[in-house]
Amino acid sequence: MMWRNSTQHFGVVSILLHWVMALIIYGMFALGLWMVGLGYYDGWYHDAPEIHKGVGILLFAALLLRLGWRVISAPPKPLQSYSPSVRFAASAAHGLLYALLLVLLLSGYLISTADGKPISVFGWFDVPALFSGAAQQADLAGDIHLWLAWSLVVLSALHALAALKHHFIDRDVTLKRMLGYRIPLTSEKDK
Prior knowledge:
Blueprint lengths: L11 H24 L11 H26 L11 H29 L6 E3 L3 E3 L9 H34 L3 H5 L13
Antiparallel strand pairs: 1-2
Helix pairs in contact: 1-2, 2-3, 3-4
């Protein structure tokens, strides 16, 4: 398997970034839902948010890497079997997924730094608080963070359903390309 994307296939870097980030996003969503229900005397009350913040900063770095990688190694061309509306929907959904994730991560940063303290990333390094002290910063950013998290999970679930539709109903190679299969594109449907 090639490291870089080709015009027909995803490379290993894109595939790994896609699946690792997807798992982390769903894990962070579950952690976020769980930790907001913790009581003050629960052993995880302080630790869970610190894990959530640290992973969030690393996820932000991974997002920047992924966006940079898309510039360096453009994704494969859409299949010729896609209608113009499917091409538009796929492009819009991908753009919206990236935008939601970016704003979600920025809102998490604003929640975490509202008190003016830096975010410690597992003791490895600190991310300084660049914006703090604004009235209601944590509350407003928290509301945005919650709605964006749900929106990202719902849209990514629809994204997964669309991939399954391509695989089982359309019987094209859309899903196989993101799973790393090297498929010779021989039929007109797969080009």
